[in-house]
Amino acid sequence: MDISDEDLSLQCKLNHMNEGLSKEKLDKIIVLQVKYDIEIKNLAAECNLEPEFIKNILKDFREPAAKKFRKNSGWNAWQVEWWKNNQELNAKSSGVQKKCAIEWNEFDLDKKEQYFQTADEINKSRSLNKTEFIEDINKRKNELNKQIKEL
Predict the structure, then answer these.
(1) Residues 56 and 78 in one domain
(2) Most buried of the four, 53, 75, 82, 94, by CB within 10 Å?
(3) 73 phi and psi angles, rounded to 5 deg
(4) What is the pTM of this model?
(5) CA separation (Å) from 91 to 83, 105, 107?
(6) Is 24 in the same domain as 54?
(7) Does 66 map to a domain?
(8) Consecutive 10-residue averages of pLDDT for the chain (151 residues)
(9) Domain boundary among 18, 36, 60
(10) Are residues 47 and 88 both part of a single domain?
(11) Quick one: which of 52, 48, 37 has its CA closest to 6?
């Protein structure tokens, strides 16, 4: 099998990205990628389309990765409040984040505990608000109305 410049480029990328992989695993990945590229080229020729067009279509139909939310901490809750009280400051200015951290570090444990509790409440409300999409429009309306009444 001839190795094209594209295949060499792929091999260089994989070598750089996956230095911890064994040679056998890396070779399997490269062979699979070459087979995939050949299938795309054959399909493109059969359908009289550009290979990149087909690759873009396949890429668009992949399921998006699940978004993982990082839990809020007491520090995060403190920062939100601090920025609300210091809106005149620019986040890009030097030393502003350090000033926020210094004020946080000056708090005693009781004061910090207040922010830890706020963060816990935020995290709990996030987990409670996870709802699945309801396909039936009447059930969806009922659920929305129920949640509005609870507010």
Answers:
(1) no
(2) 82
(3) -115, 175
(4) 0.43
(5) 9, 19, 22
(6) yes
(7) no
(8) 57 61 82 89 90 80 70 90 86 85 91 92 73 70 77 66
(9) 60
(10) no
(11) 37
Q: At residue 145, what is the residue type?
A: N
Structure tokens at 45: 């020729």
Positive or negative CA dihedral for 3, 6, 9, 15? Answer: negative
Q: Which residue range(s) make up the domain with 27?
A: 5-60
CA 22 to chain centroid:
28
Residue 67 domain flag: no
CA atoms within 13 A on the CB side of 103: 13
Distance CA 34, CA 27 (A): 11
What does the block give as tokens for 71?
A: 């839990």
Domain count, the chain: 2
CA-based angle 45:47:53, to the nearest 5? 85
